[in-house]
Design goal:
Helices cover 57% and strands 0% of the residues. The protein is built from 3 helices and no strands. The protein starts with 16 loop residues before the first helix and ends in a 10-residue tail after the last helix. Bound molecules: zinc ion (ZN).
Length: 79
């Protein structure tokens, strides 16, 4: 993933990939507010990279939920 995306000055509604990735991650911890959701969905519409990133995170979240509700995660290595 590249980070060299230009930051737009205030007034534009675009968000950089870095910002989009941050919002995508946030979404698994808390609800995004209206502006965040709008920014993210607008970015996802035109950015394939972030769409893929979102898919990967969704998959990870599903897996971790299965762990949490079903099988016990192996934790005998925790110090
Ligand atoms: Zn992006």
């Amino acid at each position: 993933m590249t980070d060299d995306v230009a930051r737009y000055p205030d007034g534009t509604r675009d968000v950089s990939c870095r910002e989009a990735a941050r919002l995508i991650s946030f979404r698994f911890d808390r609800e995004l507010n209206h502006d965040e959701r709008r920014e993210l969905s607008m970015h996802l519409m035109e950015c394939l990279n972030c769409q893929r990133f979102e898919q990967q995170l969704k998959l990870l979240q599903q897996l971790s939920r299965q762990y949490a509700s079903g099988a016990k995660a192996p934790d005998d290595a925790v110090s």
